[in-house]
Specification:
Helix content is 47%, strand content 12%. It is of the alpha+beta class. It has a four-stranded mixed beta sheet, sandwiched between helices.
Length: 187
């Protein structure tokens, strides 16, 4: 009799362990499926035109960078420097300002070179084009990186008054950056 009770108790213990293992395997499978879907969405966003709204909300290949911020209260004309880059970008998009979003790090050689070029060229266009500087390695910017679909740095996104954006990955020469900013600012 005692032997049967122990056997039943051990069987229940094994059953609980088995259920836990199956649960963990199901969770891992779900995470892998979600990662695969996210990867497919990221590669759809990595084209020449970039969208900040969710892909489901944008059925056509031409996407706009205008976000939900447009439907909220009117944005202030210029973002406060203490705002996170994502909030700065949302305010600028809502205000319809031409914007250069610069995604980089402070450690990669190409990023450092592109930072030098932006520092050299951008001041001439500060009155006509807003700049959102995004360090890709700062955790506070993870949401924006995911939202925009940044896969490589340095990346420059040129956003016009209508919210349409074009991206450029890599180092852009100073003259080419000047040309892009001149066209963006309407000069």
């Amino acid at each position: 009799m005692i032997y049967n009770k122990r056997k039943t108790s051990q069987q229940k213990s094994y059953g609980a362990q088995l259920a836990a293992i199956v649960g963990v395997l199901l969770l891992i499978g779900a995470v892998l499926i979600l990662k695969a879907q996210k990867s497919a969405v990221s590669s759809a966003n990595s084209q020449d035109e970039v969208g900040l709204a969710s892909p489901a909300a944008q059925p056509s290949p031409t996407r706009t960078l205008l976000s939900e911020a447009q439907t909220a209260a009117p944005a202030q004309p210029s973002p406060a420097p203490t705002l996170l880059p994502e909030a700065q970008l949302d305010q600028l998009l809502a205000a319809g300002k031409p914007t250069l979003a610069f995604f980089h790090s402070n450690t990669c050689k190409k990023c450092i070179r592109m930072s030098e070029i932006v520092e050299e060229v951008y001041p001439d266009f500060a009155d006509t084009v807003s700049l959102v500087d995004v360090n890709a390695y700062e955790g506070r910017n993870a949401s924006l990186l995911q939202r925009v679909g940044i896969r490589a740095i340095p990346t420059l996104i040129f956003i016009d008054r209508t919210g349409q954006g074009r991206s450029y990955m890599g180092v852009m020469e100073p003259d080419e950056l000047r040309e892009q900013l001149r066209a963006l600012g309407g000069e």
